[in-house]
Write a structure and sequence with these properties.
71 residues
Length: 71
Amino acid sequence: ALSVAGLLSAFCICTPIILLGALYLLFGIVSAAIATANEGFTPFILLMPFVFFVLHTAYGVGTIIGLIKGC
């Protein structure tokens, strides 16, 4: 998503953070659609984009805190 955002930011008027968020949402929805196609529909599939976001945000924040603290 970062490489796609970098390539598209040269052609997009919107700010890179909005573009990155839109691409992240798009990839989350595509991942949920692929999981639905492979596994069949369950209501939990609708939560996948949110779960991806929470997982990656927590991982990123934890990494930043670890780098700041020097652990």
